[in-house]
Specification:
This protein is of the alpha/beta class. The protein has twelve helices and 15 strands. The relative contact order is 0.18.
Length: 463
Amino acid sequence: MTDRRPNLLFIMADDHAAHAISAYGSHLAKTPGLDRIAEGGMRFDNCFCVNSICTPSRAAILTGTYNHVNGVTGLDTPMDNRLTTFPKLLQAAGYQTAMVGKWHLGHGGIHDPSGFDYWDVLPDQGDYHDPELIRWKAGETDDPEGERRVVEGYVTDIITDLSLDWLAARDPNRPFLLKLHHKAPHRSWEPAPRHAHLYEDMEVPIPPTFDDDYSFRASAARNARMRIDRDLKLEDLKVPTPEGLTPAEEKRWKFQRYIKDYLRCVAAIDENVARVLDWLDDEGLADDTVVVYTSDQGFFLGDHGWYDKRFMYEESLRMPFLVRYPREVRDGSVCTDMALNVDVAPTLLDLADVAIPDEMQGVSLRPLLQEQTPPDWRTAMYYRYWMHEDPDHNVQAHYGIRTDRYKLIRYDGEGEGPEWELFDLVEDPFEVHSVYDDPAYATLVEQLTDRLWRMQAEVGDTP
């Protein structure tokens, strides 16, 4: 007898900003494959991560908990495999489960995803070309740490090929969970050969905050080491910087080198997402499959003169989140309610009719998918970034809250005590002028600070 619970296809990229997806109105990228998910389902416009860095965000997605709870606060803090995760719960409930691509939750090159019948993952960051992969399959692989081999080709294509192979070989009478995780478009942004010359004959528009001088913000913005004009390396740019350029010309030249390779990597993702959607159509599975596309966090695409993420500013905080499920989600719908990456686990469990553990701190988005916002839905979110000791990026540890209109951020400071920022996202949507010290906002500062302490306590974190 066929199990009629929905299939779950969770596709995640690494560092794919929402403003590099045309469904989000991007002026940078055309993504017809990804747009198919939005056109056939729901686009979430206010989905945020609770810690904008790869490994912690992945742990929050898997466990439905904040990073001070799951223990994964930085890139070098591996996830304890004894933690409850939604794949484990789905597997126990009879789902076929697979993980293919970038796992990035191991330590020292050891990767052993749990809760999966099959996994085929990149070690650490993995390579774009001819990558090594580590494979394990229940009942077939003797080594619990998996079998390593090099697979020829381009990583985005390979991850998709392996995923489609697993789907084709699955038991058609049982529902599946497939986590398809792309490496791209992570630094150092190496495109597929077929996209080597894409965008070559055009100038990508620079963002409005490209020449931000960080004058009206905390020192953390000035001190961060992610500036396009100063911190990109030869391996990022691929060729030496031309001689004879003015500083402004050099900065713009570096931006064009960076952003075009980034968008070329996105193009391969878009093509491969379309391949998977085509397969679902051909197999008659589209109506019975929840398709999610997201990224582990946002990314600065020249915004504020930066690449990378980490900060609580909008371009880094906001995640793309697209969901297609014809049984429940209306075509072309848009949700502006606040969603978080800790909501992913309870949402997928809810859609699969599996009980959500009390320990999960996120909330199921299923009512939002049905366009029925609960009256007590959140109007603010809590964020925390720990990795202040990372010398490569030098982003100060910080935490804060974002409401529908305001954002309050507290930085640990470097020797002189904490620094604060407050942004009015209506008056200052690009977040270039903190009004924390503006007397006109003094009462609001007091109110938001009190709300920050209360939210921090509610999620169980401490200053």
